[in-house]
Structure formats: structure tokens, C-alpha cells
Amino acid sequence: MPLEPSAADLLTAVQASPRAVAAHDKSAWVDLFTADAEVNDPVGSRPHVGRAAIERFYETFIAPNTIAFRVDRDIVHPPTVVRDLTIETTMATGARVSVPMHLRYQLADEDGDWKITHLAAHWELAPMIVQLLRTGPRGFGAALQLGPQLITHQGVDGALGMLRALGGVGRTGKRVTERLFAAAGSTDIARVRGLLGHYAVVELPAGTPVSVEEFTNRARTMRWSKLIAAGRTVTASVRIGDARGVALVEFAASSPHVAAVRFFLDHR
């Protein structure tokens, strides 16, 4: 029978990741994942699946850089942890970028240890590239280094897979998300229904489906900020009453309609 994790168990597993990254301890970082784990970083790019692929991910994006996690909030919803944070990366050339991010970790028990089965990093690739280039010669130097690193560790297909993150719902998804939240906040049920797909699921909190009526009733005090469009998902830092957290708004594969809205919340 699988163990029921405590919040402390899951946070301990997740917090080990930035420690290993800061120490540039590849083995410790890769060992945080299950053998068949998936790293989707950023969401919208081609995922890295399995230990060998995760090791190549480390060599490409972590090993050459100095990375600091600036965490604003952790939301524990067993067996998931969502982190609301900013990651500051200093490249080998000295160029530095600061990237707003939401991280979603799914974990599983493996012989008494909680390990990561899926890591989804919600951040925007295009603004990061612009920010990097605006740092001047150091930024251009870092960009020139990244190309060969991608080819060396990921191959041509892997490099192209990374560029897939430049697509997705983008600004349109953000606009729809804001309209949905505004409609829910003003209890405009008809407008909320119009923005949701026919079979859309609203979970408030995550894992607990609610009707459109209950969603609009409970969301009337909602506030939101830090919208991030990655792939076909928009994430947002939210506050509903005394609960704070992160909302994930997932869009249908070929339309601007919302397929699912999931709220990961705490009450601290």
C-alpha cells in the first residue's frame, strides 16, 4: 500500500533540488528523480524523459551556469508541490537573467524516499532571450555558447525541441485567462461559460471539481498577478479570500477555449 506523504516529506524532496543545483552536484540532482521521470523545462518544449535525458539536460542548462532560486511561496497538495518563484541565472560569460517562474513537481514514493516523477517549469523563453541579449556582449556571448551546448548534449532534434517553447497560447492565452478571472470575480456566469470549453473542468482546489456556479461564487474575491504563458498553459499567482497559491489554466489543443482550470492553494 503506497505511503501517504506529509507536507514535510514532499518539501524536503523538492528543496533538495536547489541545494544540488547550487552545489553543482550532478549525481545528487539526477538522483532526485525516478528512473522514468519527465522534465518539461520550459513547458511547451520537448520533454526530457528518463535518467539519460535528464543527465543531458543537466549538462546543457545547469552545469555551465550559477542558478539561484528565489522562492516566494510553496504550495503542497500531495503528491504535488507547486513553487512560486524567480530563478536568477548567471551564465559562464557573466550575463545574468532573472526569470519569473512557477514550478510544479509531482512525486512518488520509491523504497521509502519521495522522488520526482514529473517536473513542469512554467516560464517564457522569448522574454528570457530578449533579457539575455539586452545584457550586451556578455549576453551575446552566452547565446553563442548555448547553441553548440544544445547540439552537443541534445542533438539537432533536441535543439529544435527546445525551440517549440516559442509557440503556445502566448498573449492570447493570457488575455483569455484575465477575462475568465475577471468574469468569475464579477460573478458573470454566462461570460465564464463562454470562455470555458464545453467539457472544461474547474478544480477548486486541485483535485476537487466544482460547478461553474460554485467557481464564480468562490472566486468573487480573487486577485491575480504574474501571468506566465508556457506551451498551452497559462499559470498565475492568485489569492482567493485568505488562500494564496497558483492557478493552472490549460487550453484545448486547437482552440482558444479553456480545457481545465486548477487552483493549488494554501491558507498560510
Structural write-up:
- The chain has 268 residues and is α+β, with helices and mostly antiparallel strands.
- It folds into two domains: 7-165, Nuclear Transport Factor 2, Chain: A (Roll), CATH 3.10.450.50; 170-266, Nuclear Transport Factor 2, Chain: A.
- Helices cover 37% and strands 37% of the residues.
- It has eight helices and eleven strands.
- The chain has helices at residues 7-22, 26-30, 51-62, 125-133, 137-163, 170-185, 189-195, 212-218; strands spanning 33-40, 48-49, 66-77, 80-90, 96-110, 113-122, 196-203, 223-230, 233-240, 243-251, 258-266.
- The strands form two sheets. Strands 2-1-6-5-4-3 form a six-stranded mixed sheet. A five-stranded mixed sheet has the order 7-11-10-9-8.
- A hairpin with a 2-residue loop joins β8 and β9 (233-240).
- The protein is globular and about 50 Å long.
- The two termini are 31 Å apart.
Number of helices: 8
SS elements, strand count: 11
At the fold tier of CATH, the topology name of the largest domain is Nuclear Transport Factor 2, Chain: A
Head-to-tail CA distance between termini: 31 Å
| Strand residue content | 35-45%
Main sheet properties:
6 strands, mixed
Amount of helix: 25-40%
Radius of gyration: 19 Å
List the strand order in the largest sheet: 2-1-6-5-4-3
Spans where pLDDT lies below 50 across 5 or more residues: none
- Give the overall shape, derived from the CA principal axes: globular
The level-1 CATH class of the largest domain: Alpha Beta
Mean of all residue-level pLDDT scores = 92
Write the CATH architecture name of the largest domain. Answer: Roll
Judged by helices, strands and strand pairing, the structural class is alpha+beta
In total, the number of domains comes to 2
SSE order, one letter for each helix or strand: HHEEHEEEEHHHHEHEEEE
